[in-house]
Amino acid sequence: MLTTALTTAERIALLGFSDIVKIRNRVLQMRDVIRLEGGEPFMGTPDFVKQAMKDALDAGQTRYAPSSGIPQLLDAIRDKLAAQNRIEATTDQIIVVSGGAHGLFCAFQTTVNPGDEVLFFSPYWTPIRDQVRYCGGVPVLVPWEERLTGLQARVTDRTRVLYVNSPSNPTGIVLTRDELASIARFAVEHNLIVIADEAYEDLIYDGEHVSLASLPGMFERTITVYTLSKSFAMTGWRIGYVVAGEPFMGALRKIVLNSINGVSTPTQFAALAAIRHGVDHLAEMRDEYRRRRDLMVAALNDAGFVVPSPAGAFYLFPDVRARLGNDSWRAMEQLLERTLIASVPGVVFGAEGEGHLRMSFSTSIETIERAVEALHKL
Q1: In this predicted model, which residue has the larger pLDDT, 209 or 1?
Q2: Contact at 8 Å (CB) between 356 and 51?
Q3: What is the pLDDT of residues 102-121, one digit of tens each?
């Protein structure tokens, strides 16, 4: 009998495998490396959040929950959105998802048809391009430096979705209220759907965080994605939430139901505690991040790199061309060889990132001090 080789679905070829994961795996095999390549909060999950999970388990909260989320958590999210984000949503307009990446996947699957163009700023968080392509969409990159004029220059009659990430990974850029108002007018003018990625909403050191969906005319055209991973050091818990009106929420419910059925029930009780009682934790966390940021910015600039102080998130994106050349992969290798500092090549985040490196200041203060000392010797 004639047989042919078994193959995967053709659409799998549209997905890449993270270069950051490859770098991490390599660094794990090395000794004495100063690890700034990561993207995870430096602190542990707050004790009160872990205790809420234990209490939920002891109370037998281990059965199926409603696929959209437990009512108590939906109520807490609604109240938080109104108070913090100035978004007036009902619980029917909120759905709990398995972290920010899952929320974004659901949002793109809900909105992007084959051939649709999706605008987003570059450098960008690496999975976004793959998520757009997996829908059959066409990524259209707008350099951050051209973020207002660049949108008008690149919109076409095939543009359907605009993805906005503020605070930004990898640049740390926080869009101002005026910039977001301009983006909102652009979206309304061209009748675009907006996917707002607000994963780093609580990590703001300068300025303010403004939710796009809170601006006039934007709630009805915006899908906003949140996660507890960065705010509460819950990366491994895999929980977040998405806010949207119809027709988007109906589609999101179908995708969540058919992808994960629902988020772990005891995890949702932990998230409830985080949202209800996390104000003091967030203030302390921001102070610690600001301290680390300021030490690293000063050391990098002293070492001959060009790095503005990021207004948000926990990444630095220095221009290293004057010291290490234009090739960011080679620059990463040189920095690792000379200082033992592990970083990520900027080109991984799009062609606009070439000549830069991404470094995270979300690590222990001892690691930051080692990095500062190593940079002084570069």
Answers
A1: 209
A2: no
A3: 999 999 999 999 999 999 99
Strand (E) positions, the chain? 34-35, 94-97, 117-122, 138-143, 159-165, 193-197, 222-227, 240-243, 315-316, 341-342, 344-345, 357-360
Using DSSP's 3-state secondary structure scheme, residue 243 falls into strand
Other Cβ atoms within 10 Å of 276 Cβ, number: 16
**What pLDDT, on a 0 to 100 scale, did the predictor assign at position 2?**
66
Q: What is the DSSP letter of 10?
A: G
Confidence of residue 280 (pLDDT cuts 50, 70, 90): confident
pLDDT computed for residue 1 by the predictor: 60
Helix axes 328-339, 365-376, angle to 10 degrees: 100
Residue 164, SS3 per DSSP: strand
> Which own/partner contact pairs does 323-330 have at CB distance under 8 Å and 24+ positions apart?
323/378, 325/355, 326/354, 326/355, 327/354, 327/355, 328/353, 328/354, 328/355, 328/356, 328/357
Distances (CA, A) of 242 to 14, 176, 187, 269: 25, 22, 20, 17
Q: Where are the domains of the chain?
A: 10-39+280-376, 47-277
Higher pLDDT, 268 or 4: 268
* 3-class DSSP assignment, residue 196: strand
Amino acid identity of residue 138, one-letter, is V
Does residue 66 carry a pLDDT above 70? yes
Architecture of domain 47-277: 3-Layer(aba) Sandwich (3.40)
Strand partners, 240: 97, 227
Q: What is the reported pLDDT for 18?
A: 73
Q: Determine the CATH number of domain 10-39+280-376.
A: 3.90.1150.10
CA distance to 68, 130, 159, 301, 330, per residue, from 12 (Å): 28, 10, 24, 42, 30
